[in-house]
Amino acid sequence: MLKLGGGNVEVRFFPPHSRATVYRITDQVNRIPPLRRKEAFLAKGHEIPKGFAVYLALRRNADVLNGVPVKTKTAILPDDYGYLADGDVIRISPEKGTVRVLYRRNSVHNSFLLTERCNHYCLMCSQPPKDIDDSWIVDDILAVIPLIDTATAEIGFTGGEPTLLGQEFIRILMTAKNYLPSTSIHILSNGRRFADLAFARQYADIGHHDMMVGIPLYSDLSTIHDYVVQADGAYDETIRGILNLKRLQQKVELRVVIHQQTFKRLPQLAEFIVRNLTFVDHVALMGLEITGFTRANLDKLWIDPTDYMPELLAAARHLADHRLHVSIYNHQLCLLDQRLWSFARKSISDWKNEYMPECESCTKQDQCGGFFSSAHLRYSDHITPFLGPPFDTYTGS
């Protein structure tokens, strides 16, 4: 698991009360002066070019900064950040002595939290909401977007509930479109704000070439969905939001987290989708992440994946039989019915993707979705390593 943020950053020569600042990292000594003034130079050797906004080094080789001009801004980072590379983007908070990695150019899992506020209180929320003023995050995101490599395939926006930002949410998406015209955007939202057709039109009018909203739908019954998200009336607004987005020809993904409260009616939910929402672009059937509120509600949520395999198989095959694009996220191959292997995806972000001790001898790790790092708290008793030769993804019936 990669460390993406924390303290123990030794900063020098920053003005008193300096605000947190976003920098793109470079280790290239030949950057042109206009770029240097906005960048952090990551010193790896003793060649220290002049003119960068700040100079960085890892604690284990901090002596490379001896050649930095006197009274130049420097930051010595803990060795945990040894993975940082050219093109990554970080935020340094001098007063607190902290750093946060916001973007990694070599990762395919770059996601930005837009707010911690939310109008849901989901039983299994991995990012528990906070009723706070965190509008400063918008400024950070608007500063980061122009620094992102334009070759980045996809970025994600999440929360909290991003649409609570209203016009600032639209502004962020417009900025991403303008600076990253070839980059796909994936948004995690509960979908309720899109029940307002005027807002849905504003979203559609952005005119992005590849933008999708991932919206949770936990049951065919409103009572179950509203219980899971702990918000009365949420189901009706979510459905209306989905319908409005598709009316405006926008891409929509349905996301179903499988746990004790949702697994029994997976086949009925699949039938509901087939009959009423067959025009959605993707359906993701997802395993549980044991973090956030999930830990507090584990007795209401945990079920061994092997125990819901019949329902998962029925739902996935029914959706696929009706030509919906189906994926299974956050599951281990050894637990899945072989008829589901073709739907399995390696979906867990690289910075929190791990494998258990039982997996050490498995020959299929490169094909398996693995575990969230938090899964050490609870995972299936049926993890069984594959010991034979590699196999092709199962595509049979």
CATH homologous superfamily of the largest domain, by name?
A: Aldolase class I
Q: Quick one: CATH class of the largest domain?
A: Alpha Beta
DSSP helix fraction: 10-25%
Individual helix count? 10
The shape is: globular
Tell me the count of domains. Answer: 2
What radius of gyration results from the CA coordinates?
A: 23 Å
Strand order of the largest sheet: 1-8-7-3-4-5-6-2
Q: CATH architecture of the largest domain, please?
A: Alpha-Beta Barrel
Number of strands: 17
Strand content: 15-25%
Instruction: Write down the CATH topology of the largest domain.
Output: TIM Barrel
Largest sheet: 8 strands, mixed
What's the order of the H and E elements?
Answer: EEEHEEEEEEHEHEHEHHEHEHHHEEE
Distance between the termini: 36 Å
Quote the average pLDDT: 94
Low-confidence runs (pLDDT<50, min 5 residues)?
A: 392-397
Instruction: Please identify the structural class as seen in this structure.
Output: alpha/beta
